Amino acid sequence: MIRFIVTASAVITGGSAVYFYLFHQRLSSRIQHKSHRGKLSASSPKPIEIESVPETIFTEEYFALYDHSSKSVSRDALPKNIPTEGLFTKLVRRNMTAFTRFPQALMIRLISRTPEEQRSFKASHLSSLDFYEGDLVCGVYRVITRTKNKVEFEMKMKNMEFINGRLAISVRETESEVVFSSETLMWRRSDEAQAMPLEKPLLRWMHETAAWWLLDSGVKYLMELES
Predict the structure, then answer these.
(1) CA within 13 Å, CB half, 117
(2) Are 36 and 58 in contact (CB under 8 A)?
(3) What is the pLDDT of residue 82?
(4) d(C-alpha 154, C-alpha 151), whole Å
């Protein structure tokens, strides 16, 4: 019986691994993405598009991990009676609410103790946010910069003071398309021995899958809104 359970678990685990690998590959084909690992150049233009990053990290003293994902959609495929700025706010609300159900968010919630932190996971709270500076989302994401087409969150993780980071969600329009983007940046001092979460292959893979799915499904959500 024990051998049967172990064998069955291995089959299920193996099957799940194949499924999620293929799921990751499908998402990769629907999302434009790029990444950077290592020192950040101070040259112009800078390799990242996040505005609230301290200038000091563009030096040899810091090591960084950066991911940029984007998805384009025809403006005609989106509701015509909602301005792009309104659609952008709806996307951020929906995606941050969806994120609360991810394993990463569930782990963060376990260490969130204050009333503000607990409230920051509630769907009723997230669905009403306009993401003004100072708003807290999912325990560790606090709005540090807000413009009509971008929200930048500062990431602060308990028991990991050596890590700093940013999550940015933005939108821009071309002549015929609307481009939604998601950026994640983490950095630490180069002489810090402890690795950041995204330096670990499994956590990085989980992050990519989550970020790509949120962007892909978020745009689909906007397309299905009633005009």
Answers:
(1) 14
(2) no
(3) 94
(4) 10
